[in-house]
Amino acid sequence: MNANKENQTWISRFQAALGLCGVELRKATRIGEKMLSASQSNTELHEYYERLGLVTMAALKNNELSWSNETVKEIVDKIDSLRSNLSSLEEDVQLLKSED
What we know:
Blueprint: H1 2-61, H2 70-98
């Protein structure tokens, strides 16, 4: 009978452990779902900030928007510099591709 009691105790502990694992798994799943949703929202937010920046940059260039802020001027100048650099790099790549 002692072996039967030990067996029942072991089964009871195993079931308790399984129950705890189930709770933790459901919790981890909910956390994962929230993190995935947050990641998707963050990606979408980044895309909208980029779209806003592109529209703002175009409006500044077309004199549809005037913004006399030194920080904005620095950002616009940096964007122009980076675009010029990228254009130059693209030209270099095309020249290298055309070489025999």
